[in-house]
Amino acid sequence: MKKVATERNFRWAGEEPSVGRVMVRKASYNGESLRKTVFSFLDNLCADRIEPGTRVLVKPNLLSPNPPESAVLTHPLVVKAVVEYIIDRGARPVVSDSPGTGSFGRIIRIGGFADALAGLDVEIREFKESGARDIGEPFGTIEMAKDLIDFDVVVNLPKLKTHSQMLLTLAVKNTFGCVVGLRKVEWHMKAGVDRDHFGRLLVQIHRAVAPAINILDGILALEGDGPGKGGTPRHLGLLMASTSGVALDMAVCTLLGLPTDRLPTNRAAGKLGLIPPSIELEGALPLVDDFQLPEEANLIYGPKSLHSFLRKHLLQRPVLDRNLCILCAKCAEICPADAISMDNGPPLFAYDRCIRCYCCIEVCPEGALAARNPPAGRLFQHIIR
Ligand code: SF4
Ligand code: SF4
């Protein structure tokens, strides 16, 4: 069994489906119609992978303790419908993730998962242990959730959200949650401010996890300064699904009126040969061209000797709204670059050290941090445009 799981987890370029089939449906969180839509996705796209006895890992976005109406997490009723399908097929579901911040128990309770899944034969547990996995060069062996090896099938359940560093967090980015706890932060640190490099890491992790299906919760999406509480819920009323996370993410770009290569993970997938040659849409894909994106981050150019200066004065950075800060210090605890200090007061940022990973924005429970361009950076951008 272990061998099968290993093969599943290590599909390589060229093994993606020749056609990226993406199903799009109008949807709401109304229990019965939601259930029907989710069941039809699973029936159409991966029924042959979920059989009696199959061990199925369900991977929602469980970033931090937030209620369903905040649109930060995959909605619990979407998770419930998937779990019900798996149980109906005689398979064995486990719901897991490694949150960015907050206790897993609180996320399950506040996020509405405990209530939604009550009475169902499903285990809900946090990824705890890591195991070494080779995701290919240039990253080589990295630490990922050990649990992945024990499951036959992964069902990936991303939320449609903006992301200060990566523009959007969709199907490919959601599997980054399979890197356990602080290891995620370490990888942010290693990937630094180079979004294309980080995008490649995300794609290679997604390829290693190889979900059998990706079902995106775009019913209540998150726009603006996502992916945490700083974002703004936006009703789109859509569920989308595909066996190819890359095809699904490309379809979302089209939905939002963005060139598909605007998303760093799509660019990386293109370089790795993981974009299906054609994408087939089933269902009407509307155009939502007023979706609020986060302020676009600029990258560091020029000689290395100037990087510290550029980081400090020109580069987009996390900025604090003091009125919202409750001094919890979660941002300082998570910062991989040790760029946040708190001396009995609000967080202070050493922008010359900050690598712009935006982990601090992700974990802030109050939405007190947002990515903003400094005045000199805005002027510089204006000049070079
Ligand atoms: S200050 Fe925030 S964005 Fe900068 S390195 Fe630390 S966690 Fe990342
Ligand atoms: S900015 Fe957010 S995470 Fe940091 S101390 Fe304030 S409330 Fe806590």
Topology:
Elements: H1 2-9, E1 19-26, H2 31-46, E2 55-60, H3 76-88, E3 92-97, H4 104-110, H5 113-117, E4 123-126, E5 130-134, E6 141-145, E7 153-157, E8 159-163, E9 167-169, H6 171-174, H7 182-191, H8 195-209, E10 213-224, E11 231-242, H9 245-255, H10 264-271, E12 278-282, H11 307-313, E13 317-320, H12 330-334, E14 340-341, E15 348-349, H13 359-363, E16 369-372, H14 375-384
Parallel strand pairs: 1-12, 2-3, 2-7, 3-4, 7-10, 8-10
Antiparallel strand pairs: 1-11, 5-6, 8-9, 10-11, 13-16, 14-15
The structure holds iron/sulfur cluster (2 copies).
Characterization of the model:
The protein has two domains: 2-282, Rossmann fold, CATH 3.40.50.11440; 304-384, Alpha-Beta Plaits (2-Layer Sandwich). α8 (195-209) crosses α10. Strands 1, 2, 3, 4, 7, 8, 9, 10, 11 and 12 form a ten-stranded mixed sheet that branches. The chain has a two-stranded antiparallel ribbon with strand order 5-6. It has 385 residues and is of the alpha/beta class. The model is unreliable at 1-17 (pLDDT under 50). β10 (213-224) and β11 form a beta hairpin. It has 14 helices and 16 strands. It binds iron/sulfur cluster (2 copies). One iron/sulfur cluster binds next to α12.
